[in-house]
Amino acid sequence: GESVGLHLPTLSVQEGDNSIINCAYSNSASDYFIWYKQESGKGPQFIIDIRSNMDKRQGQRVTVLLNKTVKHLSLQIAATQPGDSAVYFCAEIPSGSARQLTFGSGTQLTVLP
Amino acid sequence: DAGVTQSPTHLIKTRGQQVTLRCSPKSGHDTVSWYQQALGQGPQFIFQYYEEEERQRGNFPDRFSGHQFPNYSSELNVNALLLGDSALYLCASSPRRGRVNIQYFGAGTRLSVL
Fold it and tell me: pLDDT digits over A24-64, tens only?
């Protein structure tokens, strides 16, 4: 079946460097994508979203890029900080699914001092 | 402004028992969704409620049922618990107007089935 997946299960970066977390999706009918951050013992926290009619969206220190041609989504975090250490999930909402989120398995980001 | 609140935070049950989990949505939200998150995996959609009715359902058996109250709070019930039901159960709320696609999550209820 179609699902959202991630390229790498873990990512380690030096504090102050930029981080890039990747996500591949297979449901071409998805029209909305969201990145969530989940810290240990907490629920997923909304980071940024993007519609399928956009290629790029920027937030505070974060940028999401969407490449519909290759069905690829990425989250870029600028000047990564220790507080950014968490599991990052991409999630999609297929067209017509009325806000039913489909999550990938997540990437563990570790920020090294 | 209180966010999504869930209770209890932890729960231990034995196989065959029944459990009820509770959720209060974020202020101004009227739609509640429930997700199951196994260890090391992403959340899996169970079902969604608004206007006190189940509107969508994921691939979960009928042992999983729910309810939404007039104040938009919600309950998740699981009957005849199995060991495989051990997981973090997350509640998420969203508004019916505005940025309807963004779901805000509670901290979850950790259910252990022995």
Answer: 887 888 889 999 999 998 999 999 999 999 999 999 999 99
Cis before residue A113, ω within 30 degrees of 0? no
Which neighbouring-strand residues pair with B112? B12
- Smallest CA–CA distance, residue A9 to chain B, in Å, is 10
A41 touches chain B (CB under 8 A): yes
Which residues, listed in sequence order, are joined to residue B47 by a DSSP beta bridge? B34, B57
Going by C-alpha positions, the residue among A23, A15, A31, A1 that lies closest to residue A88 is: A23
CA distance A4 to chain B (A): 10
Please state, as a whole number, how many other Cβ atoms lie within 10 Å of the Cβ of residue A31: 16
- DSSP strand pairing (B10-13 vs B109-113): parallel
DSSP β-bridge partners for residue A13: A111
